[in-house]
Every structure is written in C-alpha cells, then in structure tokens.
Amino acid sequence: MTQTSPAQLTLGDKTITLPVSKGTLGPDVLDIRKLYAETDAFTYDPGFTSTASCESKITFIDGDAGVLLHRGYPIGQLAEKSSFLEVCYLLLHGELPQAAEYEQFETTITRHTMLHEQFDRFFSGFRRDAHPMAVMTGAVGALSAFYHDSLDIHDLRQREISAHRLIAKMPTIAARAFKYSVGQPFVHPLNKLSYTENFLRMCFAVPAEEYVVNPVVAKAMDRIFILHADHEQNASTSTVRLAGSSGANPFACIAAGIACLWGPSHGGANEEALNMLKEIGTPERVKEFVAGVKDRKYRLMGFGHRVYKNYDPRATVMKQSADEVLAAVGDPNDPLFQVAKELEQVALSDDFFISRKLYPNVDFYSGITLSAMGFPTTMFTVLFALARTVGWIAQWKEMIEDPSQKIGRPRQLYTGATQRDYVPISSRG
Ligand code: CMC
After folding, report:
1. Is 363 in the active site?
2. By CB neighbour count within 10 A (0-12 exposed, 13-18 middle, 19+ buried), where does 227 fall?
3. Fewest CB within a 10 Å sphere: which of 170, 287, 336, 350?
4. CA–CA separation, 82 vs 76, rounded Å?
5. Is-catalytic flag, 13?
6. How far is ligand 1, taken at its centre, from the CA of residue 306, in Å?
7. Is 164 helix (H, G, I), strand (E, B) or coil?
8. How would residue 19 be classed by pLDDT, with cut points 50, 70 and 90?
9. Model pTM?
10. What Cα–Cα distance (Å) separates residue 398 from each residue in 31, 85, 151, 340, 341?
11. Phi first, then psi: what are they for 122, rounded to 5°?
C-alpha cells in the first residue's frame, strides 16, 4: 500500500485531512479511521458499496472491465490451465507451487479427507428431507467439536492444519449430505483418485456396481470449483472475516460463511436460476417472462451482480462447460439450455437490462451443468460452499495475520426513539 495526495473534508466549521492509500490495482481508498475521533461523525454506507473493509492480496475484481484475478492470475487462464487443488495452493500461499510443493500439498489434502467415525453418526440426527445446506451448516460447525488440536488461531501450524482439514473434508461432508438425502450408504474417500474424481465417486458410486469417473464430467466439476474458489469481500467472505475477527475458531467461521452463502441473492441463486428456467419451460415463453421482470414481478436469477457491471468472466467459462457436459452426459438440445440461451439473448438486447448493466453471472449456466451431471438443485449451493471454502479460509488466515486487524464493529445511524421514561403496564394509555 502506498500513499497519494491526501483528501480534505469539511464538516461544519471543521476541515480535516484524510490520508489516501493506493493499492496495486483498483480505486484509491480514503482512510477514515480517525474520522470519528476528529469530527464526531460516522460514514453511512448500507451494503458497503463504497467501503473497503480490509487490505487484501488475494483476489482482485474490476467489475466494469469484467476482470477477476487470483493472486494476479486471470480466472480464464486458471480455469483452462490449472486444477482446483493448485488454485487452492495459490490462494493460500500467494504463489503457484513448484512440483514438489504441489505433490506435498496434494498428499496432505488427500490424507485429511476421512471423517472421524463418530462424525458420521452426526448426520443421522437430521431429517432425511433436510436441505443439504442446513446439514452443511451444522456439520461444518461441528468440526470444531472433533479437532481440538487445531483451534488455537494464534498458532501458525494449527491454522494451517485447520485449513487443510477444511479443504480436505468438505467434499466428504458434502457427499454425505447428498447421500443422506437420497437414502444411500456413505462412500468413503479413495486416495488414488484426484480431489474432484474422489468427490464425484463419493456422490454417485453405489456398492452394487463399479463406478467409473467420466473424465469430461471430472474436468467440468474441477473447473466449476475453480470458478467458485474466491471472490474477494462478498457477503459470505465478509461474514467469515467478521466472525473470525472476534477470535472464533476457523470451523465456526466457515459454518457462518456457509449460512450466509445459502441466501438466494448469493450462493442460493444457482438453485433459483434453474427453477426459473424450468418455470419458463420453453424458449417461446421467454419474452413473456422478461416482461414480468420488467414489471418488477420477479428478478431474473443468474443475472446482475453487485460488482460486475459487465459479463461475469466466470459465466463465459461456465457456458463453455455447460456445452461440454451436455454433449458428454446430457442432451445438447436440452430444452432448459435452449431457454437459457434465448433468455440471455433477449435480455442482452433489451434496454431494461442494458441500461442497468445486467449481464449473466456465474450462476446462469451452472444449474444446467450441475443438473446434467446428476446433482439435484438442492446440492448446487453445497458445491459452491465446497469450492468457496478455500477462499474463505485464505481470507480468514490473511485477516488473522494482518497486524492492523481489530474486531469488526460497525456503527449505525440511529433513528429510533430518543430517551424516555419507563411507564408501568397499568398506566399505558
Ligand atoms: N433482475 C432484474 N432486475 C435486476 C436484477 C435482476 N437479476 N438485478 C438487479 N436488477 C435491477 C434492480 O431492480 C435495480 O433497478 P432500479 O434501479 O430500476 O430499481 C437495479 O437493477 C440495481 O439493482 P440492485 O439490487 O441495487 O443491485 P445490487 O448490486 O444490490 O444487486 C444482486 C446485486 C446480485 C443482488 C442482484 O443483481 C440480483 O438480485 N441478482 C439475482 C440474484 C443472483 O443471480 N445472484 C447471484 C450473484 S453471483 C453469485 C454470487 O457471487 O453469490
């Protein structure tokens, strides 16, 4: 971080100087830390649209240009050339691994994929029809009851072990949440498979027959994980950072992130997007549906983004994956894919969407792809949570290691009643 010319702020008869910091990319940042002490005023920014909540070196987004970089590398290059585990290493360590470092990291993650035997019993406490995200929130939070030896957030090695445990165990927990909901036996991890192949096998293998991983599906799944690995200070990541700022243990913080991700404006949007495509049903009904969006009866799910005011770079890769997966295991003429393409075309040529800079986001095509792979809609956000765990944990580690870190404690613009005296119930008019 470097300093540039400071800003002057005049408030009533007081003028103060505010330092202005410059990052390596992105807008300058007004440092208002002394504002309250010097002016007795707060800033007001609901939804944090103009607020940088932290300094970070992990992910950069230029929403106007449609750019997403992880540690400087464009998402398109990572999706095409890297693997999810390599991206995990990159997010956690800041650099792409050397061959020996990668091998060690892969071995470590592979060796942590099993769950404590008693942990498996935990699942049967949930109703069979529980939403898998409800199971995820509970189960991931419960990890802190099983791994007492990695809860000391001030110990670098324990932080590292927690990170490995979370990345490694999420696929096992997510697959169990799925298996439990469909009433099939749990499938244990198999170390000879890659991270993503192992996850697919834990989801789709049954004891009655041999399961062979389809390489096109495994590649697409790995890419989907890469596309969802991190996205700077979004709602769930900010939740993880805020929870962690109090010193809470990493498993509890990630459980908080999962709870936030479940919301339909965030990770729940892919589930909603596919439901929307099903509801539209045929390309002929797209125009009528779009008219309803313009009448503000509902939102076009999988469209629009707080930061991207251009095509979400992840959506481009996702559309390509949808094509590949449908050709390999689905129906390339899948009516829902046709609906999605028509909807995208209609929306992108309509002034309502153009003027508001609403473009497809990563969730627009992910539902169709995941559905063709065999996942029910309720699992979509679980897959997002699995992939985002590395982003959450990298951001959490960065926060703990930041010397300027403080407990997150926003203030407010109070508009409630002024001080008044208590009235006994018998005397209230
Ligand atoms: N459909 C129709 N209109 C929309 C949409 C949409 N999907 N998104 C925004 N708008 C309109 C909105 O009505 C408003 O219009 P006006 O100014 O006339 O009132 C304008 O665009 C700005 O909307 P906003 O709500 O202020 O924008 P925001 O930046 O707060 O919202 C968003 C971002 C993602 C919550 C929103 O675009 C949305 O609800 N999208 C649908 C849900 C979705 O696909 N979410 C996934 C996001 S990507 C995955 C992730 O990172 O979690």
Report:
1. yes
2. buried
3. 287
4. 10
5. no
6. 7
7. helix
8. very high
9. 0.92
10. 20, 19, 16, 38, 40
11. -60, -40
